[in-house]
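User: I'll paste a sequence; please echo it back and then give the predicted structure.

Assistant: Echoing your sequence first, then the prediction.
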Amino acid sequence: MVLDIICVGMGMGVPIFCILFGFLVGWYIARMVTATTEEIREVLRKLLLHAAVTSAFTFVVMAAIWGRCLAMLFDPSADFANFGIPLILYDPQASFIGWLVLMIAISPFLQLLATLFGSHVTLLHWLRSDVNSRCATKVNTRYNVSDDMQSRLQAYYARAFPARENVKVRQLANITAGWESEMYSFDVEYGPAGEHQREELILRIYPGDDAYSKSAHEFHGMSQLHRAGYPVPRVLVLEREHSPFGKPFVIMERIEGQVLWPLLFGPPEGKQRELLSLFCKLFIQLHALEWRPFVHDVARYDTGDPYIFVDRELSKWRCYLARFPKSDFLPVIEWLESRRDQVPCPRPSPIHWDYHPGNVLLRDDGSAVVIDWTQLDISDSRFDLAWTLLLVSSYQGLEWRERILREYERLAGAPVEQIEYFDVAACFKRLGSVALSLSYGPEKLGMRPEAQADMRQQMGSIKRVYDLLLERTGIKVVEVERLLASLS
């Protein structure tokens, strides 16, 4: 506001500098908003709000300066010709009226346009430079790490592969994106002089109370997926007992490719259809895999009971809520339990539990690889599908939910029955993880400490998830409403 007044003074009451100042204001508010908000609709809303406030302040200042001149219109002796303004309309009085309209109304509006233009140019630059990290990035965002960490990784790698000579770890970089684990890319070189071999790898470190079991679960699951011919990174090392970082970790091959998320949701339309088909084919391919090799005790799953999987999830979620006795989510579980008879499972499937375009990497040759398998499970594939539909629609809108569902059904050759029930299950899982993490701490849920800040930036998408829960069930969760109100 002070700078706006200075601009008015520089123009001696003529707001030309205020209009130009709008470009600078647009740049500043875009930088400020994108630093705290990543959901695009919320970003655009805040940009418009800040630009309108700036323009409104200029309007008030201009009205204070020029508004008193309106009295001249009612003064028969007023000398409009010698008032000192350009006679742009030839008639002195008409020119005077036009000047006041220009100063008081049009100039603040031009400043609004300049502010929006500056903010959207800045936003376009932000989207282009950061598009692979804002929504669901798993690669390409790199942060320097300490030499000590690189030295410890190199010493561990040399011990793990004693047959490899002259091991050197290079270019260790933090590429963490997501709530559950720390991710680092690095290169390793080994071999005698003149015959060096080089591998590009990923180090995935698991935080949280269940890191010991989670790391082994992902390692063995990805190993089986690779044996089954499903496109996943090849895992090389599982370390839980002697980690130099104090936490379990897995080393796997690094996949060079682009995150599918920005490619799928951007133009052109023809490419969108092709990528959507690829995305759904991978999903159906996963659900069609023979599930028995993924479990140690087949009899535990192959009981002939079509409700075993929904009952298992409901029981697990009840136990989950028991860890948080003050939670308000119990009515949602009761709603699901009262309708479980409507959703028998015809065939169990391997499910990802976090399948979305941010967890799919597209290689240059057009092939795709699916990553992030910490939640791999055997269950009803509709749990998996509903979770994907919920995540995508909460960020990209309901149109994309319908597009993915239609393409999935088309490729599967059959409609998906009772998907609305699984929508509610997905809402519970999403809202529960966010609300309970913010209330009790992310480490208790097996997430990174930084996940809490990420969640706070995504309240726009969380609000849409809560709206879907209300639409499907009519159940209000006070804990979620309180959280949304505190962060609005």
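The first helix runs from residue 2 to 10. The two ends are 24 Å apart (CA to CA).
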